[in-house]
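Quarterly update from the structural biology core.
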Amino acid sequence: MTNVGRVGGRMTNVGRVGGRMTSVGRVGGRMTNVGRVGGRMTNVGRVGGRMTSVGRVGGRMTNLGRVGGRMTNVGRVGRVS
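Predicted structure, tokenized:
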């Protein structure tokens, strides 16, 4: 599935290749560039929340940034349940 465009929501450019999802854009939410390759998620951006650059490789999570909270650069090595 590619190029899902919503005006109102707003979601644009949802692309899937196998298990991979790229470029989820929301204006309002706001989430951009959600990429999955296998178990990996990269570049989750929220304006409001705010969360940026959540990367998972295996059980590892890196660069979770919150403005408000505020939590930055949370790195986990091991299993995230």
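Residues 44 and 67 are 14 Å apart (CA to CA).
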